[in-house]
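Retro notes (design track)

What went well: tokenization of the new backbones is finally stable.
What didn't: we kept losing track of which sequence belonged to which structure.
Fix going forward: every design gets posted as structure first, then sequence, in one message. First example under the new rule, 616 residues:
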């Protein structure tokens, strides 16, 4: 019996060991199956969430996104639970995996409006690659580099909002007063006659002195000096006024950021008048007027004084006055027309029918561009990446020449550039930007064209003559160059808005306006030039990347709201996320408490964590 008992115990121990081994092996296999299954649950559920992308957004704009109308957490959690429940579809209680979802954390959500629009920018890059237009990107990069080089060279040469005002004013009234005095000083006919008479008589008297004639000569000399004294007061007045003029001129030039070291006729007249004043002062020191009786002893002293007065009269005759010709007045009219051209609004000049401009406006809240902290300076500033964004905008949005259809705004590229609330404001802003840029580029060419600069110089000289303000010649020249360059830019803009093409830089054969008839330039397009749309793309490419990206998101949001769903928001749309799912599985084949306690953390269950990242 003892032997039998021993064998029974021995066999029982072996059987228990074998059963335990089988259970452990079975449990291990089950755990491996559980781990594979929960990995499948997690991956499929996450990918299912991304599979619920906004179809309308993708079809219209090529952007893959998930709009969180329901939270991603709830969607993934439901998908996981549905997958777990699949094992119990035939009959509850037959699921040997016994897995439950304990916790789900979704972190690192890649919202399109975060990180300065970086995630949205990545979507645009993917779309451009898919669209197969990278060659166009390279061409746009070259055009942008040309534009930026030209703009860097000319951005300080032209400011249409700060054109020097050369209208009549206090300074010109002062000059007119000075010129009136100078004109009177130049009128020396009476003085010259008196001078000639007394000079001839003093010469004769010196060779053959006669007391009676001496009295007559002395009388005529005093009459001459009395007339000189009257002129002397005008000389002092003119000098004083010219000195005031010089101070005001310097203030004017400084205020308008001009410098001019060149001498003009006012400077020359001042020098002449100072010589006249000094000559009269030195003559007074001879005390000739105190001579009461002319005799052979003092006649030489009187003769010297008369000679000095001859120099005074000669100097006064050399004073300069400006007299305008009919040609000068015609040139001044050209100048006035050009200045008025600058002062008038740009949009009204480039549009033949301004009343046809779209009146659509943007009204909405929660636009991506209004979000705080949207900009990120770390966002790539490479020109190629900017051109990708600009090309995408050109592919997906309308503009003045090709208005958007079924869109909130008709001129969408203009909105990306300017960000105004109405089509009219956006168009006006873009037109001004292009005209200003083209004005600077045109100016760079104009100053190298010798023939055109001769016309500019002639008109500027006429302006100085007609206004009587000689120092205005270089100022007027600057206004003329700016105005003519702007007129050419406006003519270019008319061609662009009519659907034509215009080259970025200018050449002699490509200049279409004349300085005398700036509003009727040639409207022939350049077949190798750029279209209005391409100019808009350049402006998008050279501006702040964050502004462009967020305004593009604005347009997508408002158009999707208009077409499909009024509640859609880009700020609640994402392209990727990270998640961590925690599962637990009850032990099945290893029910021995000591084994269970060694293999589980709590609640007598196995716990597993699964991390996952997914994005478009």
């Amino acid at each position: 019996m003892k032997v039998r008992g021993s064998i029974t115990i021995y066999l029982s121990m072996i059987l228990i060991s074998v059963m335990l081994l089988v259970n452990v092996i079975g449990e291990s296999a089950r755990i491996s199956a559980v781990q594979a299954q929960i990995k499948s649950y997690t991956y499929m559920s996450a990918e299912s969430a991304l599979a619920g992308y906004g179809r309308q957004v993708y079809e219209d704009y090529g952007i893959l996104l998930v709009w969180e109308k329901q939270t991603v957490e709830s969607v993934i959690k439901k998908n996981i639970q549905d997958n777990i429940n699949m094992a119990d579809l035939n009959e509850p209680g037959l699921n040997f995996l016994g897995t439950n979802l304990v916790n789900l954390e979704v972190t690192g959500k890649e919202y399109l409006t975060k990180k300065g629009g970086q995630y949205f920018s990545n979507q645009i890059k993917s779309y451009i690659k898919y669209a197969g237009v990278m060659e166009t990107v390279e061409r746009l990069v070259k055009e942008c580099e040309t534009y930026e080089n030209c703009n860097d060279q000319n951005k300080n040469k032209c400011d249409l909002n700060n054109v020097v005002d050369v209208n009549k004013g206090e300074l010109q009234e002062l000059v007119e007063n000075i010129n009136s005095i100078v004109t009177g000083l130049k009128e020396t006919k009476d003085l010259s006659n008196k001078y000639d008479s007394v000079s001839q008589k003093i010469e004769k008297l010196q060779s053959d002195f006669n007391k009676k004639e001496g009295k007559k000569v002395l009388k005529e000399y005093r009459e001459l000096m009395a007339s000189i004294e009257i002129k002397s007061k005008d000389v002092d007045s003119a000098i004083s006024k010219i000195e005031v003029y010089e101070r005001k001129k310097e203030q004017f030039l400084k205020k308008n950021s001009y410098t001019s070291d060149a001498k003009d006729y006012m400077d020359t007249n001042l020098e002449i008048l100072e010589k006249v004043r000094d000559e009269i002062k030195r003559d007074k020191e001879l005390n000739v007027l105190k001579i009461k009786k002319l005799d052979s002893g003092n006649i030489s002293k009187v003769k010297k004084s008369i000679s000095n007065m001859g120099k005074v009269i000669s100097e006064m005759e050399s004073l300069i006055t400006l007299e305008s010709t009919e040609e000068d007045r015609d040139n001044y009219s050209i100048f006035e027309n050009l200045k008025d051209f600058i002062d008038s609004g740009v949009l009204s000049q480039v549009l033949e029918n301004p009343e046809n401009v779209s009146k659509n406006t943007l009204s909405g809240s929660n636009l991506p561009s209004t979000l705080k902290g949207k900009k990120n300076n770390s966002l790539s500033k490479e020109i190629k990446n900017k051109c990708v964004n600009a090309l995408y905008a050109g592919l997906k949005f309308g503009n003045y020449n090709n208005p958007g259809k079924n869109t909130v705004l008709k001129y969408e590229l203009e909105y990306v550039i300017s960000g105004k609330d109405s089509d009219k404001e956006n168009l006006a802003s873009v037109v001004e930007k292009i005209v200003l840029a083209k004005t600077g580029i045109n100016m760079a060419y104009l100053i190298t064209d010798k023939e055109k600069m001769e016309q500019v110089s002639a008109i500027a000289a006429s302006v100085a003559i007609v206004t009587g303000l000689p120092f205005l010649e270089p100022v007027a020249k600057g206004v003329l160059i700016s105005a003519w360059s702007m007129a050419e830019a406006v003519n270019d803009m008319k061609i662009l808005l009519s659907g034509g093409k215009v080259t970025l830089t200018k050449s002699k054969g490509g200049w279409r306006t004349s300085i005398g008839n700036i509003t009727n330039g040639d409207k022939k397009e350049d077949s190798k030039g750029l279209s209005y749309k391409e100019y808009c793309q350049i402006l998008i490419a050279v501006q702040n990347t964050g502004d462009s990206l967020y305004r593009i998101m604005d347009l997508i949001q408002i158009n999707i709201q208009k077409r499909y769903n009024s509640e859609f928001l880009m700020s609640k749309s994402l392209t990727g996320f990270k998640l961590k799912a925690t599962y637990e599985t009850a032990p099945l084949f290893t029910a021995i408490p000591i084994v269970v306690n060694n293999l589980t953390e709590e609640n007598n269950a196995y716990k597993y964590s699964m991390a996952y990242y997914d994005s478009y």
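Added context from the reviewer: Residues 2-51 form the longest helix (50 residues).
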